[in-house]
Amino acid sequence: MSIHPIDYRYGSHEIKRIFSKTNWLKLFIDVEIAILKALEKEGRIPDGVSDEIKRLVKGLKIEDINKWENRVKHESMAVILAMYEKSEEYGKYIHLGATSNDILDTIMGIQIRDAGNIILDKLDELIRQMISLAWRERLTPCLGRTHGRAAIPITFGFKLLLFLDQLDRVRTALTNAIKLCSIGKYSGAVGSGVEIEVIDGAHIEDEVMEILGITRARHATQIIPRDRYAYLFSSFSILSSILDQFGREIRNLQRSGIEEVMEPFVENQIGSSVMPQKRNPILSEKICGLSKVIRGFSLGWLENIIIEHERDLTNSSFERIAIPEVFILIDEQIMTATEIVKGLIIKKDNMIKNIRKEEPWIYSDLLVQIVAIRGGDRQKAHHRLREIISSRGSFEDILHDNYLSKYLKENDLEIPILLDKCISAAKIKTEKFLKELSKKYGVPLRN
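Above: the chain's sequence. Below: its structure in token form.
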């Protein structure tokens, strides 16, 4: 029975599979087998034990675990006992020298590694698609807006640089954070490793982690310190907020009265159950809505850093919920943003119309700078132009102003030239930025 929308509405199968109970059980067994293999290599147990146990527990199912957990009320011991039950005389070696979180934290490290690589691949694809769109629209004029009001014209390609800059930066942070959390431990009840009586506990830990394809935590008590995960999931919150910002931009540009872009809208899609004409930005709205959930977890990651003594259990229930949810919802956000970018409809005629509505005064900034460059007083130029605009004067009144006319000539007020300046400036920055980023992400730029 599906209850949570994550079960049926959000996230890809590949991400969900990583956090499924079936995969968790597989990884639990994998970690226990890796420990046995390392102990064999160190001569602590007979050779061949790990292979025999792996063969004997091959058919272990969740139902077998549930039977034991209902009885002993301990999740890890339920798996250990279920393995023991099937492992004949070899079962006595299972979980030797380990504590529950040697297994559980190591499972989490493997899950973060695997799910993190999927997220990074999908984020790369989003960035590549956005680079291509920005390059294609690098000369498409659109209105710049500050405080929700008309400002200097830019290009749509230039507008997208804001999101590309942030996505590229958070991608670097995520890469580091995923590596930081792709770790495990095998060091016993308080982290000292006394249970396996080794002089160099780190050596056998390294053996285990090498088998599993992750690295050993530099230090751990009974659990791995939680600052690592706070760093990772704070980075996810930042990524989610960047995607939220992108979604909000698309929503605002799709508003009635602006209509500069439109989300993809497939044939037979319905926008409203009552208004047949509606074409709502539901993809962007989904991105924005999911960000509230992801950011809502932010404080919990910081609070999880605070663990009493060598461990308590206050972090566990939060992590059980938040880790898979954040990965699944981030996955959904990235896939949705990529769908928007790939299918975005650019309404260039409306972009020009919206610029025309705000001309000529959107170019007053340029006039202030021209006056200053030609030897005038920038502050006086700003004041005189503001007076003309406030009195509802015309653009031509500039040429009749005693001060401004000393520095501004008729050809300085030609709208096409002023718009071309705005486009040219945006184009130069856009092309330079995209050429740098295209090399990093392997995106060919075609004119």
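The mean pLDDT is 95.
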